[in-house]
Structure formats: C-alpha cells, structure tokens
Q: What sequence folds into this?
C-alpha cells in the first residue's frame, strides 16, 4: 500500500444512492477507478444520482482531491482521448458512447485524470503509454490535469488498466497530505501535476501524456507548497 496510514473507505459504485462523506479536519481524496458510460454526452443526468452528484460537488468546490482513471480501450479497439466518444457494449449491444464522468470533471481544479504507462520510466530507460490507456487529447485543459504512472501487470497477476493507475496517484496525494498538513486539495493536486516528469517518457507529448509521469520524490521535495 502506498500510504499505509491513510484511512480507506470503499463505496460500491453500482449503488448510486450512496454519497461520499468528506472530513472536516483531514485531507480527502476520492479515487474513481470507474467510468459512467452513456450514449449521450449530456452529463447533467449525473446530478440525479446521489453518488455522482456528491463527487461532482466535491470537484466543483475543490473540497477533495479527485483522482479519475482516464479509461481503457476494449479488446480490439483503439484507445481515445479522455473526452472522446468510443465504441462499447452498452445495454448488451455495441454502440458509440462517452464517459460522462470524465466530461463532467474537465476543468475541476483539484481533479487529476490518470493514464497508465507500461512501467515506471527512468531517464536511462524511458517508458511509453500502455497500449490500452486513454490519453489526454488536444484539449489543453485536460492536458493540464492529466498524469501518468507505471502499471506493472506482471506483479498483479496479469491485471492491467487505468483503474490500477489511479490508486497510485491517490496514494501519492495521501503521502503529500501527511507532509503538507495545511495544504488544500487544490494545492495537493497542483503539486503532483507541476512536478511530473517528461524526461522518463519516450517521445513525450502533452496530447498523450498530459503533464507527464507522476514523481513522488519531486512532489515531496519542497518544505512547503505555495
């Protein structure tokens, strides 16, 4: 576990009547290792679901660090950008859909989208975006809130996906919160984004990799966050 002293609470995203509950005195981090798929790009329908509405409220108010898995391409399909439509099986039949939770979180200042790299990169041995991972795309707003981290599927029994990448960044945020105790969710998210590395990714491109590969050591290096 990346942040062993963090308190972890799990919610079943299938139960849309639940709400996230935020602390009054501690840093809150909401990990979203799922998407909400719809043929419509109208994300206003999310306001009618308690769980989604509470997540969006926290994102709009920057009252929590929101960490959202970027998304994965289905077998046989090409990955797309965070805000794109893509082919998926919806209600049992293939159709073109969008992740409306992604769309609703674009521009939220304490929200980070997370894509997956094939592995952790180094300057000597740079890595690349995993072939299944959604990418940032041409929207500069998304690029500025998009991070990547390595997902070692061999260590997880062959499992892979951006759903495994997002919790790594959530753990990083928790560690930053333990050092920078007075930092706001917006500051924690900004510190992770602003300290990402470009030199550990082969052919770095903001349209693919956003800000770059998350670097916990860089994020922790200052005495305080401004």
A:
């Amino acid at each position: 576990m990346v942040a062993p002293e963090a308190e972890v609470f799990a919610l079943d995203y299938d139960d849309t009547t639940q709400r996230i509950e935020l602390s009054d005195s501690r840093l809150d981090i909401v990990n979203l290792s799922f998407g909400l798929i719809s043929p419509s790009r109208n994300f206003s329908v999310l306001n009618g679901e308690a769980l989604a509405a509470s997540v969006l409220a926290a994102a709009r108010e920057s009252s929590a660090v929101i960490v959202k898995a970027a998304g994965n391409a289905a077998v046989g399909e090409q990955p797309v950008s965070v805000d794109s439509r893509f082919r998926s099986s919806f209600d049992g039949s293939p159709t073109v859909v969008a992740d409306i939770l992604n769309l609703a979180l674009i521009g939220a200042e304490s929200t980070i989208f997370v894509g997956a790299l094939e592995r952790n990169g180094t300057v000597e041995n740079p890595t690349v975006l995993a072939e299944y991972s959604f990418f940032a795309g041409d929207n500069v707003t998304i690029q500025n809130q998009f991070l990547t981290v390595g997902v070692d599927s061999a260590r997880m029994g062959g499992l892979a996906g951006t759903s495994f990448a997002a919790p790594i960044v959530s753990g990083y945020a928790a560690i930053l919160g333990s050092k920078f105790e007075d930092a706001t969710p917006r500051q924690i998210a900004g510190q992770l984004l602003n300290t990402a590395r470009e030199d550990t990714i082969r052919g770095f491109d903001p349209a693919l990799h956003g800000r770059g590969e998350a670097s916990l050591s860089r994020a922790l290096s200052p005495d305080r966050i401004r």
